[in-house]
């Protein structure tokens, strides 16, 4: 009868392992479904942002409210090729925007690495451009930006590294992109502008998203949001 006992034990073991495998597979499928929900959770409508609090507002594209909502104003800067870069450079394009400086020993290197992920994801997509403003424009000349672009495999005319008038760049950053989080603290051009934020700008030059440029999960969400924004009917 020992053989019958061992047979029962083997049978129970097979049932247990079958249940375990099924449970693991089910959990795996559940996780996939959850990831799918997360990846598509924001595709229907991205909010608009119009002030330093980054309070989201859901507007109807093409409506009067949307047309009169905060937009990035005209600017005139110079990129790593020595070419003039204006708001018109980004006509009919989505923009991913940040602020950096080439001599930064800390967060800028991680930001540049993460921005490269954006560039690589959309390198063949003419609708998506990247704009990185130097916050030390008197140091970051065209030639310095050229060297930086070569070092980090920046694709010219896809990713613009720009220098120019410091007052203009700082005003853009603080008063129009709202990249610093120091609410209520007045700052001048003499106060250094330093931020890890990336911003997503739509074709009408509205701010549609803010992301932590040091965080891979935030970068992944940015990529998802760019794809969602491309489908938006304006």
From TrEMBL:
Residue ranges annotated for the Thioredoxin domain, each copy included: 66-231
Keyword 4Fe-4S: no
Source taxon at top rank: Bacteria
Entry keyword RNA-binding: no
Keywords, sorted A to Z: Copper
PANTHER family named in the record: ELECTRON TRANSPORT PROTIN SCO1/SENC FAMILY MEMBER (PTHR12151), LINALOOL DEHYDRATASE_ISOMERASE DOMAIN-CONTAINING PROTEIN (PTHR12151:SF25)
Similarity remark: Belongs to the SCO1/2 family.
Protein name: SCO family protein
């Amino acid at each position: 009868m020992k053989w019958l006992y061992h047979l029962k034990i083997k049978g129970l073991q097979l049932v247990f392992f079958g249940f375990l495998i099924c449970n693991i597979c089910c959990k795996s499928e559940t996780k996939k479904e959850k990831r799918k929900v997360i990846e598509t959770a924001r595709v229907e409508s991205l909010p608009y942002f119009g002030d330093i609090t980054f309070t989201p507002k859901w507007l109807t594209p093409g409506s009067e409210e949307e047309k009169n909502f905060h937009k990035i104003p005209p600017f005139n800067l110079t990129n790593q090729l020595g070419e003039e870069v204006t708001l018109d450079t980004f006509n009919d394009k989505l923009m991913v925007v940040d602020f950096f400086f080439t001599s930064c020993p800390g967060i800028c290197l991680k930001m540049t690495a993460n921005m490269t992920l954006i560039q690589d994801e959309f390198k063949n997509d003419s609708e998506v451009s990247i704009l990185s403003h130097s916050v030390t424009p008197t140091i970051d000349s065209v030639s310095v930006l050229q060297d930086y672009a070569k070092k980090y495999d920046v694709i010219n005319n896809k990713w613009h590294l720009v220098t120019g008038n410091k007052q203009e760049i700082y005003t853009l950053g603080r008063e129009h992109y709202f990249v610093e989080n120091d609410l209520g603290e007045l700052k001048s051009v003499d106060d250094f502008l330093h931020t890890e934020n990336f911003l997503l700008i739509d074709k009408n030059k509205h701010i549609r998203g803010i992301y932590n440029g040091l965080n891979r999960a935030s970068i992944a969400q940015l990529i998802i949001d760019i794809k969602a924004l491309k489908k938006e009917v304006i």
